[in-house]
Design goal:
α2 crosses α13. This protein is α+β, with helices and mostly antiparallel strands and 395 residues long. The strands form six sheets. Strands 1, 2, 3, 4, 15, 16, 17 and 18 form an eight-stranded antiparallel beta sheet that branches. A three-stranded antiparallel beta sheet has the order 5-10-7. β13 and β14 form a beta hairpin. It contains 14 helices and 19 strands. The chain is globular and about 55 Å long.
Length: 395
C-alpha cells in the first residue's frame, strides 16, 4: 500500500518513527498496524494506519483504530510473566521455589524440582503434551465443570528431555507454558483465580491496560470495540525453504514439530475465545507499550483518572524479574540461541537494558530500563521466518 498516512499523536522529535512506520506499508505490504511509545510515563508516539478487516469478511472494510485489538501471539507470554511478578511482589510466589511447593500434584513424573523460574524460562521440558489433545478436547477442558480433569492432565505430564543434563537444556514451550502458569497462579492466589480472571481484576480493571487472554465473544459485535483478525503475508526469507533448520521444522520426531502441533486442529482464530495464555492474547500496541512502560519506569504508571503516578509493582521485583539472567543457550524447539530473564522475558544481545516478548508474525512488547521506555508494535499482516520482524526493527 502506497501513500499511507498514519493517524494519531507524535511528540516533536519523534517524527522518524512515524516516517518508518508509514514506509512499512509500501516496503512490506503492510495491511494494518499500530505503534506506541511511552517514555518516563509520558506518551510520545501513538500512531496507527491501514485496515483491521478486509472487505471480503465484513460488509465494509474496517479501518485500524488507536485501540484496535488483535491477537499478539506469544506477546501473551510476557503478560503471563507480568502476572507472576505481581504475585512475587505479594510474597505469594518465589522464583527460586519448586513449582510443587505451591502445586503438590505437579511434583510427579520427574518434575519434583522444577522451579518457578525454570518453568517460565522454558527449562522444564514441558514443551508439548505426552499425548496430543484436539482443539475440541481443549474447549471441553476449558469448561468450569471439566477444569479439574485438565489440571490432572497437566500434573501428570513428563519432561521431554533430561532435566539433569550437565548443561541445562531449554526448549520453547510454544503452547503449553501458559496452562501450567495459569494453574500455578490459581494455586497461590487467595481468590483462586485463573490467569484470565486474575489479569482482568488485578490489572485491566485497576490500571486500564486493555489486554485479554481470549477475546470475549461479545466484542465482535460491539460497536465500541475494534477487533482485527490476522492475515498471512507471502513474504518469507528465501533461505528458509532450503535451510537445514526448515527441514527440522518438518520432522515429525523433532521437538519443534511436536511443540507447535501439540493441540491438534489449533488455529489462533478458531481458538480466539479460549484461555490459551501462551498464544492467545488480544491487545493493542497502546496497551502493551503502557505495560512495559510502567515496568521500565520503576513500576510506575500514569493514571488518567487521578492525574498521578500509581505503583504497579515494586522496583525490587522488577530488578529480580527483568534484570537478572535466567538462561542462555541453543533452544531445542526454536533451533537458535535464546536468552531469558529470571522472570521469563526475552533478552537481546544488542539491547542489554531491554526486556520483553515478541509474538509470531511481528508483534512485540518491549521495555528499556536505561531510557525508561515502553514500546510496542502490533500488525495484522504476519511475516514469518524472521527472528525479529524487519518492520519492527526499522521502527
Amino acid at each position: 500500500q502506497n501513500n499511507i498516512k498514519a493517524k494519531g499523536y507524535v511528540k516533536k522529535g519523534w517524527e522518524k518513527v512515524k516516517q518508518a512506520f508509514e514506509e512499512n506499508f509500501s516496503k512490506y505490504d503492510e495491511l494494518g498496524s499500530s505503534v506506541t511509545v511511552f517514555v518516563e510515563g509520558e506518551l510520545v508516539v501513538s500512531i496507527y494506519a491501514g485496515t483491521a478487516f478486509k472487505k471480503s469478511e465484513k460488509a465494509k472494510e474496517l479501518p485500524w483504530q488507536e485501540h484496535t485489538l488483535t491477537n499478539v501471539y506469544s506477546c501473551s507470554k510476557g503478560v503471563t510473566a507480568f502476572c507472576v511478578m505481581l504475585l512475587v511482589d505479594k510474597n505469594l510466589l518465589n522464583y527460586n521455589d519448586p513449582v510443587a511447593k505451591y502445586w503438590p500434584e505437579f511434583g510427579q513424573n520427574g518434575k519434583e524440582r522444577i522451579t518457578v523460574s525454570e518453568l517460565l524460562t522454558h527449562r522444564g521440558g514441558l514443551a508439548y503434551f505426552d499425548n496430543k489433545i484436539s482443539l475440541d478436547e481443549l474447549r471441553e477442558y476449558m469448561k468450569e465443570e471439566n477444569r479439574d480433569e485438565f489440571r490432572k492432565l497437566l500434573a501428570r505430564q513428563t519432561p521431554k528431555w533430561d532435566l539433569n543434563a550437565k548443561k541445562q537444556l531449554q526448549g520453547y514451550h510454544t503452547l503449553t507454558v501458559g496452562f501450567f502458569v495459569s494453574e500455578l497462579i490459581r494455586r497461590v492466589d487467595p481468590l483462586h483465580r485463573n490467569i484470565q480472571r486474575f489479569y482482568e481484576e488485578e490489572v485491566r480493571q485497576k490500571f486500564g491496560i486493555e489486554f485479554y487472554f481470549g477475546i470475549p465473544p461479545s466484542f465482535e459485535t460491539s460497536p465500541s470495540k475494534s477487533i482485527s483478525r490476522l492475515y498471512h503475508s507471502k513474504d518469507m526469507p528465501a533461505e528458509m525453504n532450503s535451510s537445514e533448520m526448515f527441514k527440522k521444522l518438518l520432522d515429525p520426531d523433532s521437538h519443534h514439530f511436536k511443540a507447535f502441533r501439540t493441540i491438534k486442529g489449533f488455529t489462533p482464530w478458531s481458538a480466539r475465545h479460549l484461555e490459551v495464555p501462551s498464544a492467545i492474547g488480544y491487545s493493542s500496541s497502546f496497551a502493551l507499550a503502557r505495560l512495559y512502560g510502567a515496568l521500565a519506569n520503576h513500576g510506575n504508571i500514569y493514571d488518567d483518572k487521578t492525574k498521578a503516578m500509581k505503583k504497579v509493582v515494586s522496583q525490587k521485583v522488577i530488578k529480580e524479574a527483568v534484570e537478572e539472567e535466567g538462561t542462555e543457550g541453543e533452544d531445542l524447539v526454536l533451533l537458535r540461541k535464546t536468552r531469558y530473564t529470571k522472570g521469563g522475558f526475552f533478552k537481546i544481545d544488542e539491547f542489554e537494558t531491554g526486556f520483553g516478548h515478541s509474538g509470531f508474525g511481528g508483534s512485540i512488547g518491549w521495555g528499556d530500563l536505561k531510557y525508561k521506555m515502553g514500546f510496542s508494535y502490533v500488525p495484522n499482516s504476519l511475516l514469518v521466518g524472521y527472528d525479529f520482524d524487519p518492520r519492527m526493527v526499522r521502527i
